[in-house]
Design a protein that fits this description.
globular, six-stranded parallel beta sheet
Length: 280
Amino acid sequence: MTVSALVAAEAPIGVFDSGVGGLSVLRALQAELPHERFVYFADSGHAPYGERNGQYVVERSRQVLGQLRREHAVKMLVVACNTATAAAIHLLRAEHPGLPIVGVEPALKPAVAASRTRRIGVLATRGTLASAKYAALQASLGNEATFIAQPCDGLAAAIERFDTTKIVALCAQYTGALGTFGNKNGQIDTLVLGCTHYPIVADQLRACVGSQVTLIETGPPVARQARNVLETASLVSDHATSSSEVCLLSSGNAALLREAAARWLGVNATAGVYPVVASS
């Protein structure tokens, strides 16, 4: 490994989402890459992406990546947002050819592997479900299962606000709209959480669909892919830290991000390892 590659290996990994939902991906990344440093950017001041037009999401993605490269010299970007991945990742890769960029997508392939009834529910934002990327993914698997997709307007925003009453109501509304859950023929036995916000409310969703239904999220496979990409590029850090370090950035309410990190990552976010910085 060259000296420049060695220096780059100790640079942080950038993780980007429209809000707090990408913390579900960050948690998986920390488990898979325990010696890495991370910079997490929650673009909460411009959320929700899933209800914005594609060009808006593209421009915000460009601005966030630009800031992460200028101010933090990230060695990789993980786009921990399904909507931003669908709208912008191909442009980000073209504009930053030397930077490894890993995105997320609704985990339809793992869902097919897990399902026995071959009926799979998909909860996602309207932007994700309307994207060409999602259409191509579903079409590639169309002969293997029946997918019932449900746009979840307002759910990511309710999760951002920790609005428990709204979360419970929307989880019940959207799972109810999908149909009957269970492990019998004709029933949905697998539910894809197609937005990185949704694993944060997995308990509420579980209460709606029952214990026999398999919930599929994107964090673990994304983390494995990130490790593979880093290993191929000889960019895995071997810095012997007791736990990964994270800098949290927010374009919105930094206090909400700090609270979400404390809840989702299971740490005391005021302990100094997780400084939260408001960003314009």
